[in-house]
## 1
Amino acid sequence: MADRLTMPRTAMATVSVRAPSVDIYAPQWRNFVFVAPFLFFFTTLLIFPLLWGMWLSFHKADTFSSGDFVGLGNYVRLFHDKVFLQSVWNTFYFVLLTVPTLALIGLFLALCLNRRTRTAAVLRTLFFSSSVLSVTIVTLIWRIVFIPNVGLLSTIYGWFGATAPAFISDPSLAMIGIAIATVWWCIGLPMMLFLSALQQIPQDVYEAAALDNANRWQTLRSITLPSIKRTFILVIIIQIVLQFQLFGQAWLMTRGGPNNLTKPIVLYIYDTAFRRWDLGMGAAASEVLFILILIAAMAQYLVTRNKADQT
Amino acid sequence: MSAPAISIKGRAFGDRVLLALVILLSIAMIAPVLWVIGLSLKDNAELMADPNSVFRLPYTLRNYFNTIGTSSVFLWVLNSIIVSGGLTLGTLVLSSLAGYGFARLNFPGKNILFVIVLFGLAVPEQAVLVARHQIFSILKFHNTYHGLILPGLSASFGVFLMTQYFKAIPKELDEAAMLDNASRFRTFWKVLLPLTVPAQATLGIFTFLGAWNDYLWPLISATRKDMYTLTVGMASTQTNFAQSEGIGFLMAQAVFAGAPILIVYLFFQKYIVTAVSGAAVR
């Protein structure tokens, strides 16, 4: 012990013998001080509002008071509200439009840009750059692309004497327009996740394949794709969780219209709770969203944990 | 990083198709931005007469002078800096302390508390939005800086990240310090914290970027124009698209708001990409 105490501090790091019988790992109440500040904010601003929100969803509440207990009344009203059911459908439709597109384009870009050239590095920077912009700027850009007469799309169509599809105002195209803007905004993350998965594939597997005269398609199918299967599932789940929370794009591009056809669940919550001030009903809708996202989050947890088991 | 080393034979055609696709996607990425920059440099009347006038002279900086002349933009930038900076600082302090506590110290109920904190990762903002808004109404926190900062401090991601990071540091380091009779806080402050700088950078960038781009909470909490963050303020000016100050003006505003963050991205690209993808996988 005495020897260790006189050693310089840096050298001690390399000593692998655990110090005997020093009680620094014993449970002590005063150690709680370190986690207490965070737990204070965590409890008051996350756990309490979560429980309070559940409680609100059983009440007819407005801004400052929670009024009468209505039991499951809000939920019954919710599931009889055509606009809410429409918003649930819209959200699923949007997820269906964006998530596979993001995963496939992201994978394609990662496969193409996974090399050490300068061009590939510049293109990786380019494809991720839109991810750092705020939703306000992204929607501003895409509204000006889609806007009739002066927009980029109508200008391009104009060169060929054609009329551009009305991506914002046409009921059957509005959600697709929002999805295009979203894919443009979010493509960076799936690409980067796939890239880091590709870089973890050992190089010698490819060398072995080359010796066997495997062509590129065979290499892709029997080596690359199986190695990143888990990442693919992970990307899908992460994107489902993210895209389920669609709000800004829909609110800023179409205000949920035409005819509520682009109104997602979060926009329904926003409308109900903060524009009609029906907090109870808004809280009920947010519980439904919470359960949907929780299911996806659990799936993500299971996928991540399986990897930990394997390695 | 390198491409699989397989035979060159018969690759030319396939390579060209792939190259064409990548170029097409790159154009789709960059064309809208160039279009917006082009519009921002044009006089509105000329633009309305012929949209193709974007492609020819004359260009003007008038829209930018108008943007800067609108004093609100600077106020919103200032608000965004205060909110994002405050939240980042708070998150770093709280997460480092808690991360050290969970990774290194023992206290009654530690394991169950950590599981609850992990559960916080799965709670989306929207699930607590309504209740949070009501609580903040009662406390009169709306339209204040702390009203905009506080909700972000409850996010568990930072604690999770810092706990992982502290766990990866060899225990011998702090055991040595504690044997030297350093207090727990001194050990944390002098020995371990300096080693966590990379994690602090990742967490700091992630938090700052998230707060800077946040839209939903500032939209419902900051309802007074002078308390808008840049994101909400910009959104508020684009409501009357066609009839407002003109497309060129709006585009100049978009460039004005987007350019700084893109420049920061170009310089800190590596950290930003690590921060964003690390947060997604967690």
Note: The radius of gyration of chain B is 25 Å.
## 2
Amino acid sequence: MSEVKISIRNLHKAFGQKKVLNGVDLDVCKGQSLVVIGGSGTGKSVLIKCIQGLLSPDEGSIKIDGQDISFDQNKNAENLNAQMGMLFQGGALFDSLSVWENVAFSLIENQGYKREDAKREAVRVLRQVGLAPDVADLSPSELSGGMQKRVGLARAIITKPDIIFFDEPTTGLDPIMSDVINDLIIESAKGLGATTLTITHDMASVRKIADCVAMLYQGKIIWQGTVKEMDKTENPYVRQFINGCSQGPIKMEI
Amino acid sequence: MIKKYVENFLRTLGRPLLTFVISLGNLVLFVIKAVYHALTPKYYIKIFLKQVLEIGFYSLPVVGLTTIFAGMVIALQTYSGFARYGAESAVASVVLISVTRELAPVLSALMVAGRIGAAMAAEIGTMKVTEQIDALITLSTNPYKYLFAPRLWAGTLVLPLLVLFGDVIGVFGGYVVGVYKLGFNPANYINSTIENIEAIGIISGLTKAAVFGFIIALMGCYNGYRSKGGAQGVGQATTNAVVSASILILIFNYILTEVFFSK
């Protein structure tokens, strides 16, 4: 396929005694939608946080556009993130700001937009994710879960990033709203031509948005392939996960 | 057998010591980073002003009430204690000195620590556990500059103003008791107050206030930022912020008094 956008090699991260990432190798191609699946607590979020510079890895390299970013992210986390957007699991909207101020945050703080211009732009992007202009002046706590996700999405895409991360975008939503969010994710990523990395354990979401699927288990990528390949694979771990069986090689730590 | 006991004994000694050293180290690193970012651009003026309003303006009633009663009680105590004779000038000067040097800075700071330190820790702690601080970073914004620096500046600059206000109110409290309860001559009382005004007392009080303001904001930010887990973690952070700020205020009050007044 085309050129590699994100390249991760031998990534290790431990918290105290607990090894969360244990040698992750992963490539994401430009414009591709990669979905990382894996059980709760397998380090999916840690993986994303390492790429964004929110956590520093213990070992290994992370390259974006061929540039190694893994060990100086304290200096560059802010610059680096200018080309990335992230939709957080809980939305992570700033509750001290109104909806439109959340969406336009980067425009106002980093790109020097005037408030009225920023608001106009925010309202436009809000409409793009299916929210009416009158939502703009509400506070995030007045919104439902699905609406908060949409606002989070609007905030993530307003700067037209090259890379967008989605942290369990459909968790906590009803199936219909999940599908709506999935559609929005596809639409917005396609519209921007962005590379996306999604972590989820919602298989419906995987089938809908993934070009490519990778499974994280015990701190390593144990399988990678397309959705079609995923359905045909004989890999017992993947089979167990996508079928949601309690019996199989994956033992849940209870 | 004995070896085991010794080992266990050393362990019980060592663990809290290590925990203490680690948290001290974390705090020092936090302070260095926060101060560095507070001194270098970019500055978030609007957030700073909002904090000034929050810490300063809205604390006026609390500080006013605290210091007026402090001034009143000092007037009463001085009179009943040792100044029946020549009481007017003694009461006026004791009220002035104790309010400006100690009572206004320390009591105001403790009250503000309860009011502001707790609120800061709760707000920042909630932002931390709901990933809002991570979100800030992904939006290319440094949380030290955006969240902590404006609060540290506001705390450091606003507390002296609050204490100056407290000084005036506290001395007025003494005047009220002196004139309306103890029956002093108002003009004489005011004269002896003015005669006894000393620069060092007021300056030391205001310096203390600046340090206390920094401590309050620092403890609010630090404990909030370090909070883990959900609501319980934030609650813990809030408590820690108030308790640690209060203790540090009292410790630094002593140290600064040494610096200013010991010869």
Note: Chain B touches chain A at residues 123, 126-127, 130-132, 134-142, 146 (CB under 8 Å).
